[in-house]
Design a protein that fits this description.
Blueprint: E1 2-4, H1 14-22, H2 37-51, H3 55-63, H4 71-79, E2 84-91, H5 92-101, E3 106-114, E4 120-124, H6 130-139, E5 146-149, H7 155-160, E6 163-167, H8 171-176, E7 182-183, H9 186-197
Parallel strand pairs: 1-2, 1-5, 2-3, 5-6, 6-7
Antiparallel strand pairs: 3-4
Helix pairs in contact: 3-5, 4-9
């Protein structure tokens, strides 16, 4: 089975798109930049509260986004070879429109705490260290896992898997993880997965 991160791998970063739509450059910060996920989310929620943005504002931006170029064809080719689960630290409340554009792969992600006025007041993790634990749960079913992602929060799931690589990861992450191979294109990623399946 293949486990992939979502943002930066199959779709653009939702928070970066929202940053561009609102002109708030501070919201460009993602898990590629900040390894402390809780600190990152508290930072984001504080900005949303200060600026008066609600879930509806983020959902409107996410609904207008498209998968990364080549992602739809890649996931189709991949699902012809094996099963795919998306393991993401995004939120189901605004990821749903993008799942439709990827032909509804299985998505394990987190959820938001929404106030009656639509403001985002917090978040609920599916579980702490959820990506790694999801891989370990799948392995307990005698599945062998290939995992790929682009951020600090993907490293644990990649290292827990039988195979894996970084995909379009920033240079700083690649250099800090010489034990993990990296690729830049969907063709290269599919080749890595095919080699894993055929080993």
């Amino acid at each position: 089975m293949v486990c992939l991160d979502l943002e930066g791998v199959l779709i653009p970063e939702i928070w970066i798109a929202f940053s561009e739509a609102t002109g708030i450059s501070a919201l460009r910060r993602t898990t590629r930049d900040e390894p402390d996920y809780d600190a990152l989310m508290r930072f984001r929620i504080d900005i949303l509260r200060q600026q008066g943005f609600t879930l509806k504002d983020i959902t409107r931006v996410a609904s207008g986004m498209e998968p990364l170029e080549g992602a739809v064809q890649f996931t189709k080719a991949l699902r012809e070879k094996t099963e795919l689960i998306i393991l993401s630290d995004t939120y189901e409340e605004f990821a749903r429109p993008l799942m439709a554009k990827l032909a509804y792969p299985t998505l394990f992600c987190n959820s938001l705490v929404i106030a009656p006025d639509g403001s985002i007041t917090g978040y609920r993790l599916r579980q702490k260290d959820g990506k790694r634990k999801a891989v370990e749960a799948l392995q307990s079913l005698n599945l062998e896992i290939f995992a790929a992602g682009d951020s600090f929060n993907d490293l644990a799931m990649i290292r827990a898997s039988e195979g894996g690589c970084l995909f379009r990861a920033p240079q700083a992450i690649r250099e800090s993880c010489p034990d993990i191979p990296w690729v830049e294109t969907y063709d290269e990623l599919l080749a890595q997965i095919t080699a894993f399946l055929n080993r």
